[in-house]
Every structure is written in C-alpha cells, then in structure tokens.
Amino acid sequence: MRKTFRRRLSSPFAVSARHSIAIRRARPRWLSCLLMAVVFFGAMAATWWTARYLFSPPLPPLTAEQINAQEREDSLKKELADLQRRSASLESELSMREGSQATLIQHAEALEQENTQLKEELTYLQKLVADVTREAGAKIQDVRLESLANNTYRYRILLVQGGNPKNDFEGTVKLQASTGATSNGVSQAVSLESVSGRNADGDDKPQGMPDLAMPLPVKFKYYQRLEGVFRVPDGMKIQQFTVQVLKKGGGTSAITRSINVK
Looking at the whole model, is its pTM more than 0.70? Predict the structure, then answer.
C-alpha cells in the first residue's frame, strides 16, 4: 500500500526513460537562400511560359504576299536540294570518267609499246628470212644500244645462222664498251655491270641476270635475240659498243660487230 502511494506521488515529477529526446542541427542560412531563389525563379519561369503560350493572343493570318514568299522559299529549297543531288551525281560521273581515261591512256601506252616491239620483231624476222638463202654460218644481224637514265644502257642483239643450217650454233657472246680516244689516242674500256630487278625505266627485269664480265652462252639454229640492261661507272659515257661471237670449240675466227653510240 505504501509502495502504491509512493508511485502515485512520484509519477508527476518523474522522467520516463521511454521518451527519447532528438537534437536537430539548424539548416545553414545560405542553403535556405538558395532554395528560396530556386523556387522564386521557377515560379517566374512558369508564369512567363503560361503568359506566353496560353494567354497570348493568336498570331494574325498570313497575307497573300507572305504566303507567296513562303511558297517561293519552299520552292527554292527544293530546287537547291535537286541541284545539290545533280552536282554530286556529276562529280561522281566525272571521277569515273577520269579513272576510265587514265586506264585508257595506260592501255594505249601499253599497246603502243607492244606495237613498237612487234615492229621490231617483224624487222628482225624480215632480216632473218632475207639472210636464210645467203651465205651459211652465224652472223651478227643487228646491234642496238639505247641510253637510259642513271648511267644505264639497254642493248639488243640479233644473231642469225643462214644457209639453211642443219645443226645448232653453239658458242659465246662477249660485250665490250669503250669511251672516245683520250689525249694519247687510245680509247678506254668501260666495265659493264648487269642491272637486275627494276631498271631505270621502271620495267621489271628478271632476277639472276648474267654477269656481263663473262661471255654469254648462246645456242640456236636459226636466230637468237639477246637483250638486257647494264650500268657503267659514274662519269663514263660509251661511244663505241662491240659484240664478239665465238663458236664453241674454236676452229673459226670470232665474229665481231661494232657500233658508234651518239
């Protein structure tokens, strides 16, 4: 009974442990000002948009002149787009024609070169046929030397055997070149270096070309062509080119033919 009385007496003055006390930190002043500014400007923007698009008076109808101007503008835009498409098409066609023209030029040059080679072949064959009925034995029918770039020369030699031969001619060919006569009246021999791979003209030559310092072996019954490119030392200029043919096993004198190079 006393305990119940004490509880009733102390309950108005006691602090219950079941109630928690929370202490909140005050919001910074600058953050409050920023929030207020955002709300203010948002309200201003919403008011302006409402007044501009919802409560503004309708636009006046276009006049006939404005309608004509707009139609003309649309027509000019369509015409401009059409002209741009036509220009792109013409540029593409022009590039295709330029490519075709370049290809045709290359083909024409190749055909011209082939035609020149065929003419030379025809000349060689005509000389060969004319020589068949003549004296028997091997002969140097033609010798040509063409100057190229970078101290290089192209040589072309035609060997024939006339008199309706029955056996093959087998022997060697030696190439010699010399400069003009010096102050002593003696010409100077020029060393010839065979050019392999890509020569000065850009033509492809087979690898492994023979060494021109050694005689070139030949074997033929009616005719044989020799063709190649060689290089001379810097500062040297060939003025005489000599071809010497010697039959295998000897027994006959060498066949020699020289030409002057301009």
Answer: no
